[in-house]
Amino acid sequence: MKSPPRAKQQRGEPLVAKILETTLSEIARAGYENLSIEEVAARAGVNKTTIYRRWPTPEVLAISAFERFSDSNGPSDTGSLRGDLLDYLKRYREVCRSPAMLSLTRMHFSGGFVGKLGELIRERTHSGDCDALVMFQRAVERGELPGGTDTGLVRDLVLGSAQHLVLFRHDQCTDERLQQLVDILLFGALNGGRPPKAQGARAKQRP
């Protein structure tokens, strides 16, 4: 009786993608400090020498994985700040479900931003923050936000709130919930962080 044919070994780009995806999944599972090339090889179904030839250390392997999967697509440009944010946050929600973001989140809470990998993550985080800031700067130029708006603060409030919702309330992170979040925070930004005059006047009349 003939034995069943062996699965064809992946090569080239598909093999690289599989190894790097497995690396991020392993960081998310075990933590960067416990990243093992042998374990990655076993989970990816490849010989460890296949990995060592291209990525001689766990740090080099992790850096390659993050470089491959953390490229930003840039800020949205739908013509309105609300539309930009909703599109951006929906894409962000999907990214947060990826092994790359799970790994990044784990490293953030474990203080794993060290060495060359730490430098890469800080660089990509700064780049992402700058990309997001563009949306708010455009809104000021279009007159959607008042001149003099602290765009960095508004960005941090919107993205920080969205990050909490996506990462820690993921079962509640529906499109409708994201819309509510954006509308509430933009309402405050439109008023310069102050309550509307009518509400302010009523507040002064209270004993």
Describe this structure in words.
70% of the residues lie in helices and 0% in strands. It has ten helices and no strands. Helix 4 runs parallel beside helix 7 and helix 5 packs antiparallel against helix 7. The longest helix is centred in the middle third of the chain and has 28 residues. The termini are far apart. The N terminus is likely disordered.
Arithmetic mean pLDDT: 80
| Structural classification | mainly alpha
Total helices: the number is: 10
Compressed to H and E, one letter per element, the order equals HHHHHHHHHH
Show unreliable segments.
Answer: 1-8
Q: Helix amount, in percent?
A: over 70%
Distance between the termini: 93 Å
| Radius of gyration, whole Å | 22 Å
Q: Which of globular, elongated, flat, extended, rod-shaped describes the shape?
A: elongated
Largest sheet at a glance?
Answer: none
Count of DSSP strands = 0
Strand content: under 5%
